[in-house]
Each structure stands twice: as C-alpha cells, then as structure tokens.
Amino acid sequence: MISWLLYYVFLVTTGVEDLFPPQFLLVGNILMVFMISTVTRKKSLKKCCISTLLICTVWMVVEVIALLILEAAGMDECVIDVAGSFISKMCMLLFSVLLDRYTKEKQYAEISLRYFIIALLVPVSSIYMMHHIFLIAASHSEYSFFSVVAGILLLLVNYVIFTVYDRMGQAAELQSRNRLYEQQLDLCSHQAEEREGYYLELRRMRHDMKNHLSGILGMVNAGQTKEAGDYIQKMLDDGIGTGSDEISHTGNIVVDSLVNHKYALAQKDGIRFEARIFIPSVLPFQSGHLAIIFGNLLENALEACRKLPQEQRYIILEATYIKEMLQICIKNGSPEKLKKDSSGRYLTTKKDTGCHGIGLASVEQALADYNGELFTQYENGEFRASAVLYSNSVEEK
Cα(283)–Cα(158) distance, rounded to whole angstroms? Predict the structure, then answer.
C-alpha cells in the first residue's frame, strides 16, 4: 500500500506541466514500477527487472500509438490527453493481467547474469528510442505515421527478445533438472552398493554360521556341553549377526542404507554422528524422493563438518513420523554462515558452481510433491535444516 501511495503521489506531482523534464519522468516511472514489482511479487531481482522493463516498454509504445491515433482523428488536445491516458492504462491493465497469468503457469530457473544483461539491453534501448521518437513526433507531425510503425516494430522486437529469454529460462530449468536426475541416479547407485554389501554380509554370515553350528554339533556329540555353552556365549558376546557399522535400524531400506552409508563416511572423517530415527519400515513417500532429501541434507552436513577442526565436527539427525507427517531435522557444525543469492537460495562454496550448489534446491523440489517445506537456520556455529512432508497430500494427488 505504501509503494502504491508513493507511485500515486509521483504521478500527481509530475502531472503538473513543464515542472519536470521528460527524462526525469521516464526514469521515475521505471523506478516506481520496479519498486512496486519488487514489493508485490515474491520473485528474484532479475525477474523483477525483466517484468518492469517489459511493462514500461509496452506502456510507452501503447501510449504513443493511442495518442497519435487520436490526434490523427482530429480530436481536441484536451480530449486527446484524457482519452489517450485512459486507453493506455486500460490496455496496460489487460496486459498486466495476462502477464501475471502467464508467469504463474511457467516457473523457470534463472539464466546466467551474462545472458540476462544481454537480454536487458534490448528493452532498455527500446525505451530510449521510443522516448525520442515520441519527442520528434510531438514536434513534427509528418513523423506521426513513422512513430506508429516504429512503435509496432519495437513491440515485435521486444516480443522476440522476451520469447528468447523465456526459452533460455526453459533451457536453464532443463539443465537443472538433468543435474538433479544425475544426483538421484548417484544416490540410487550408492543405495544399490549398500544392498549389495548387505547381501554379501548375509551370505558370509550364513557360511560362518554353518561352520559355527558344525563345531557346536561336534562338541555336543562328544559330550563337551560346557565347551559348547562357552562357545555359544562367546558368539553372543562378540555380537555375531549384528552390524557394528549401522546406526539406523528402522527397517526402511532406503533410509537405513543412506543413513548408515553417511554414518560410515562420518566415522572415516572423525565426525561424531548421532541418529534418533523413529519411522515405520513403510512410508507413503517415493523412495527416490526420500533418497534425495536424506542424501542431500546429510551430504551438506558432512561437507560442512570436514571444514572444521576435529573437536567441532558433529552431526545430529532426528526423524519422526507422527500423524501422517514426516519431520526431519539435521544439526551440524558449520564454519560460517552461507551466502544466499537474489532468490534466497544458498550459494555453494565449491569452485565448480555448475555441478554443485543444487543440493537444497533438489530437496525443495522433492518436498514440493508433498506440499512440504524446508527451513534452514544458522546460529552460533551451528547449521540446522528441517524438512516436513505431509502424507495426506499424496492421497489427494
């Protein structure tokens, strides 16, 4: 409301004739529209810049064309000012509604800064050219037809440019999804290796158990019951059949394999790893999504801990499933507060930004299928990531 009030005051103030130069009015309108676009739309600064310049370009061209058409029709100057302003605003109202509906249906990833600046030059140049064409047509009536044609051509050029921008956004989104699929395949590969390890361990246990039972049977047949009892007690004390490198025993293959795999990596790096997981063996969520969520959050925690001294490395994992809601909370030591980009996403600290920095983005994408949310917080050297998934959203879908 404050931003709209400021814009209204600006329009009323600049409505006084010959009080401000045309360049000031042009720049002021662009800044005011950008302010409103930033405040009212929860989008990144890049998208706000693009939408602002698109609105201002079309608005300027429509206003010039409307005024020139009314002037060619022989209307009075007073009527031209009022009617032209009304027609241009109605056209822009329709255009903004269509633009809002169009942008809601398509959500694409942001393009790189280099291509964004290149795409931005076209609408900026169009506004500059249209401004001077309007001043020329206002002073020389013989250029009226040229102004209309030039305005239409500039609209077509901007339409092409924003179509190209839209395609670049699609390409960036496709590239991001491909990286996510590669990451999911990598997680599934780790999961397959874990299962293969379990099968090998099971085969080894069966083979060893056969040898143990043969030895015990020989002792019993020989009447060495005390020795057989001692041998069985020793097997129980040694923990035969238990996985010493396992910290998750929920029965859920995906969660157990991922958590135990990350636990083994943490043990190698001297990271204290605690897990309190209370979930059923069967969850109403896709295994691939669970692998992405647990795998990425734990991998980020491991990377952060590796940058800390030995005594400051720790990871605490908590997961519960209560009332059709899965809650995951991971706390870990972190060397510094991570930086965010203009859209609010955390930036990777790795040099290869093209292949990294998509962990939390992939988690958010997986959570979106269950109307879930991801909350992150950094405080006193500790980074906390909390994810919530709702199983009732699966039934609705």
Answer: 50
Last residue of some domain: 127, 156, 180? 180
What's residue 331's pLDDT? 95
CB 315 within 8 A of CB 332: yes
Residues of the chain where predicted confidence (pLDDT) is lower than 50: 105, 241-243, 341-343, 347, 351-358
Look at residue 197 and tell me if it is in a domain: no
**Res 298: pLDDT:** 92
Is residue 62 packed enough to be buried (19+ CB in 10 Å), middle (13-18) or exposed (0-12)? buried
What is the 3 state secondary structure string of 212-248? HHHHHHHHHHCCCHHHHHHHHHHHHHHCCCCCCCCCC
Is 0.70 surpassed by the pTM of this model? no
Quote the longest CA-to-CA distance of the chain.
Answer: 123
Whole-number Cα distances in Å, 59 to 1, 56, 225: 22, 5, 97
Q: What is the pLDDT of residue 22?
A: 66
Can you tell me the distance from the alpha carbon of 104 to that of 346, in angstroms, rounded to the nearest whole number?
24
Token look-up 């135990």 returns 260
Structure tokens at 393: 């959203």
- Give the model's pLDDT for residue 354: 41
| Residue 278 belongs to domain spanning | 245-396
Q: Beta strand 272-278 with 314-322: parallel, antiparallel or unpaired? A: parallel
